[in-house]
Amino acid sequence: MSPASPRRRAPIRGVGRVVSLGDEGGVNRRLVLALPGWPGSEPGQFVMLSPGERGAAPRSDPLLPRPMAVYRTHAADGAGDPALEILFKVHGRGTALLADLEPGAQVGVVGPLGTPFPDPPLGARAVIAAGGTGIASVYELAAHLHARGVHVVVLLGARSARDLMGEADFAASGVPLAIATEDGSRGVRGLVTDLLDDALSGAQPAALYACGPTPMMAAVARQAEQRGIPCWASLENPMACGFGVCLGCAAPLRSGGFALVCRDGPVLPAHEVAWESLP
Amino acid sequence: MSAVDTRVNLGGIALRNPVLTASGTFGYGTEFAPFLDLTRIGGFVAKSLTLEPRRGNPPPRIAEAPSGMLNAISLENVGVDAFVREKLPALPEGVVVVASLFETEIERYAEVAKRLTGAPRVAGLEVNASCPHVKSGGIEFGQRPALLAQLVSAVRRATELPLLVKLSPNVTDIGEMARVCEAEGANGISLINSVQALEVDAETRRPVLSNVLGGLSGPAIRPIALRMVWQASRAVKIPICGMGGITSAADAVKFLLCGATAVQVGTQNYLEPHIAGDVADGLVAYAERHGIARLADLTGALELPARRVPT
Asked: Total structural domains in chain B?
């Protein structure tokens, strides 16, 4: 189970077309993009999205593309192009631009990018803990592990039932699911980390996967370390390029060095990350 | 096959077309292999190299700004020896590489230049003069004419390769800096580097970058860059490589008109990793549309108003 998975596809730079853009509860949106030539992605990989038509003079403000986890991919259905699905939260100018797109609008895409989640051994148990928009990064992982016969349990957390993204998809995939919301409007009242004790009480899982707010991932990483469970976390950082060139997305490591979230991550061995030094 | 002659000579560096990519925005070239055939462009300027490998600043290292971005990476790089040993051989045939170098002391600059001289595919050097000089208490080399003269002279003695000097825009008189480079034997001048800048988070009352100050790049700085390229081109006879916020062929044309012999695409490579190739193609389309036989004829072809303009 090497953290540097050999499963990589060469990224493309393409222009996607908005198929649909729907509400996903609260300020969350679900974007489906048809993208000619999309080679598919591995669980945990991401794309860089530049909303809008380029034209002769491209939009310069906001300038940078936005990194977004690939929620899932739909294979081309005969005549159609392959499509990728993105779940995102509207929280700034870049995501507001994305949220305002009409069906048929263009979106520049670079991807698939980044190091995916590694597989646990066949027949093993695995636990996935995801909070907030981190849920968007783990659907394909859950579906992939479930399909491979891994006994995977998914723990989802959100502020409230309204903010909880993707629940129906996870439920439909047949993966055992536990939910926590901060206001108790869905599942257990509390944080996703409150579900960990239960999930880890039986046989020791072979892998723990986390994606969510930094304090949540740090807490999961601590638990994993105390219990001796291999743990991978998917990080988020501002980045300009997404493919290891701008060097803007450096995350501090315990070793004293840095990992590039775009290239070395977004999935990193949780024990290597200097959680207390993340901005 | 287009009839337009796209070739230019940038101070002894023969380029198939005048479009390069800017140091620090193009890695070591191989990162762009999935997106761009590097033989479509004139060449690329590799990430600045130091004598030893160098680790960058803690995050946050970048931030968005209106029509631009700030960065304070602190010139993280693999070091000159690893570049020559590992990065250069990984590039395909026919790729023109300009190696960028920087250091904190003049002797070390000269040593990096020596180690790059004779390395395969390195067609020229670009001295990044926007670095703090340790012995002068952190003043940028490119901000003091005397310091800049010493630097260019030392690197000139260390290499026979065509030598470009990349100037800082953070000066009062860019023409003076350009003349210093020319007098000390530089073969060309690259400008502008990023504009020193500061952005603040009003809620937290903190600078957005861990380094406090950063370099502003992107379309926001393009008019400043055009102005400085124009001023520098009037001050010296050696060729100018112009850059700052280029996103399209039309932007590149503006730099050529203001006196640049070649251009570098920078920040836009992050957004559109294939863009430099499109800019090169777009220059040919522009030339065809305007009946221009040689792209080199665009250099300095800015048509000034009859009335005397302030310089």
From this structure: 1
Instruction: Identify the sign of the CA torsion A115, A32, A212, A247.
Output: positive
* Regions in chain A scoring below 70 on pLDDT: 1-7, 77-79
Predicted confidence at residue B134, as pLDDT, reads: 66
Nearest Cα of chain B lies from the Cα of A212 at a distance, in angstroms, of 19
Same domain, A126 and A200: yes
Place of tokens 């030392």: B154
Residue of B60, B69, B210 lying closest to A63 (CB–CB):
B69
Interface TM-score (ipTM) > 0.95: no
Phi first, then psi: give them for residue B114, nearest 5 degrees.
-60, -45
**What's the gap in Å between the CA of B144 and the closest CA on chain A?**
29
> Tens-digit pLDDT profile for chain B (311 aa)?
579 999 999 999 999 999 999 999 999 999 999 999 999 999 999 999 999 999 889 999 999 999 999 999 888 899 999 999 999 999 999 999 999 999 999 999 999 999 999 999 999 999 999 877 667 666 789 999 999 999 999 999 999 999 999 999 999 999 999 999 999 999 999 999 999 999 999 999 999 999 999 999 999 999 999 999 999 999 999 999 999 999 999 999 999 999 999 999 999 999 999 999 999 999 999 999 999 999 999 999 999 988 766 66
Residue B131 annotated among the catalytic residues of the structure: yes
Which residues of chain A are within 8 Å of residue B269 when distances are taken between CB atoms? 241, 245
Give the type of residue at A74: H
Check residue B308 and give its pLDDT: 67
Residues 6+ positions from A128 with CB-CB distance below 8 Å:
A138, A141, A142, A145, A152, A153, A154, A155, A208, A209, A210
Q: Where residue A261 sits, what CATH number does that domain have?
A: 2.10.240.10
In chain B, residues with a C-beta closer than 8 Å to the C-beta of A95 are: none
- Last residue in a domain, options A93, A113, A133: A113
Residues of B with CB under 8 A from a CB of A: 25-27, 31-32, 34-35, 55-69, 71, 73, 76, 210, 218-220, 247-248, 250, 267-274
What is the domain-level CATH number for residue A74? 2.40.30.10
B130, B166 Cβ separation under 8 angstroms: yes
Q: Is A26 helix (H, G, I), strand (E, B) or coil?
A: coil
Interface contact flag, B73 A246, Cβ < 8 Å: yes
Domain that holds residue A49: 12-113
Comparing CA positions, the residue from B160, B214, B7, B190 lying closest to residue B100 is B190
Distance from CA of A116 to the nearest CA of B (A): 18
Residue where the block lists tokens 């006879």: B237
Q: Which of B270, B272, B281, B286 to mutate to test the interface with A (most CBs of A within 10 A)?
A: B270
Query: pTM, whole model, 2 decimals?
Result: 0.94
Q: What are phi and psi of B141, to 5 degrees?
A: -55, -40
**Alpha-carbon distance B209 to B168, whole Å?**
20
